[in-house]
Amino acid sequence: MPQLTPTDQTRMVRGAKRANYDTDTVHAIIDAALICHVAQILPGQKPLVTPTAHWRDGSWLYWHGLASARNVAATPAQPVCINICLVDGLVMARSAFHHSVNYRSVTLFGVPETITDPAEKEHQLERFLDRVSPGRWPQLRPITASELKATGLVRLSITEASAKVRNGPPVDDEADSDWPVWAGVMPLQRTWGNPEPDPAGLQPGVEPPLMG
């Protein structure tokens, strides 16, 4: 499997045994998550972290927002750090000290690029929506030129990145093995709930969207 090359920023020291530089693992975690957190330190400003929806196309991570938003407009030529994290379960140990969380996370570093070509912007926005709700884009009222202009789009190369994964049961001290309390993993499952129609009304015969 292809591997990412660790750098001074992505090479893990704390919890190094959980580090993973496999490209397929990094991509799978990015694809499984809906939200990433974009961290920036802009000139003359305080640190800023912005949660935003993201998607992947090959070896690029994309996100969008208002063209004037800081996590879009201010990113070119400015380095960012992005974190994505999925919680898979709570690890319940026999002591408070050894409780933990099963999780999958990815951290990325780099300088984003701005996408300005209208055709490429529309193509990527369709990819984003298709990721969330397959087949929905062709059903929608076509996007207008002014809407496309008002939407900023940036991407970050997935080259300086690493994954960190924790899975499995609790790791208790041997002396605690007979302590009379339940220990194990409480898995966390994420599913879509029942659709809630727009209270303003819907056209007759329309069906709820498919969800990715």
UniProtKB/TrEMBL annotation:
Pfam families in the record: Pyridox_ox_2
The protein's name in its UniProt record: Pyridoxamine 5'-phosphate oxidase family protein
Region (Disordered): 191-212
Gene3D superfamilies reported in the protein's UniProt record: Electron Transport, Fmn-binding Protein, Chain A (2.30.110.10)
InterPro entries tied to this protein: Pyridox_Oxase-rel (IPR024747), Split_barrel_FMN-bd (IPR012349)
Source organism, top-level taxon: Bacteria
PANTHER family xrefs: 5-NITROIMIDAZOLE ANTIBIOTICS RESISTANCE PROTEIN, NIMA-FAMILY-RELATED PROTEIN-RELATED, FLAVIN-NUCLEOTIDE-BINDING PROTEIN
